[in-house]
Structures are given as C-alpha cells and as structure tokens.
Design goal:
alpha+beta; 6 strands; 4-stranded antiparallel β-sheet; about 30% helix; single chain
Length: about 120
C-alpha cells in the first residue's frame, strides 16, 4: 500500500466560516476519520494553528536563526492534513473528494518510495 498526504488549504482572504459551518466541518471530518479507520486507510491526521503561529528554523554557515511567521509569504497555507494508505492514487482521490467536501480544497501527494514503510 502506498501512502498519500491529503493537505487541506487555508486561503487568506476567503470568507471565514460561521461557527455553525465550523461545527459541520468538524462533524464531517470526524465521520471521514472514522470511515478511514474502519477501512484501514488511516495513518495519521491533524489540524494546524494559524500560519502566524509558525516558527521557521534555519541554519546558515553553521549558525541557527529562528524567525516568527510562516516560511513563505503566500496567501495559501496548510490548515490540516491526513496521511492515508491506499492501493493507488485513484483510491486516495476518492478519500480526497470526501475531505474536500467537508473542509475545502485538498491537495493529494504521494510519499516518495523511500518514505514507504
């Protein structure tokens, strides 16, 4: 089985969901999580705090520096993710469709062959 990263994207400037919409998203992602676990596709998942809570660690010329904020200045950031295992990309895309319906745009990327356990 190959592993895939399904990443949910937060788009800066997009309308903020209402509290009711957020609760619906949580319920739907909970159902998806349960279904993934029951199907044996679940590996790990998590939601992330806002990009402004990030710290970037760099090492340049042997010196470590740290800066607040996201690594890249962009209008899209990863808001959460699933790591799943599936037979192939088509199966991963079926899960991604459900995830996107629950919480917005989802990018699907396979892990490289060296990362497969």
């Amino acid at each position: 089985m190959k592993q895939y990263l399904l990443s949910v994207h937060y788009v800066e400037g997009a309308p903020t969901p209402s509290d009711e919409e957020i609760q619906i998203m949580f319920r739907e992602t909970g159902r998806i999580n349960d279904d993934m676990q029951a199907a044996g596709a679940w590996v790990f998942a998590g939601g992330l705090t806002s990009p402004d809570s990030a710290t970037v660690v760099r090492i340049e010329n042997g010196a470590t520096s740290m800066s607040d904020g996201p690594f890249a200045e962009t209008k899209e950031h990863i808001a959460g993710f699933w790591v799943i295992k599936c037979a192939d990309l088509d199966a991963a895309l079926v899960w991604a469709e459900r995830c996107a319906a629950a919480c917005g745009p989802v990018e699907v990327r396979p892990f490289d062959d060296l990362s497969q356990a």
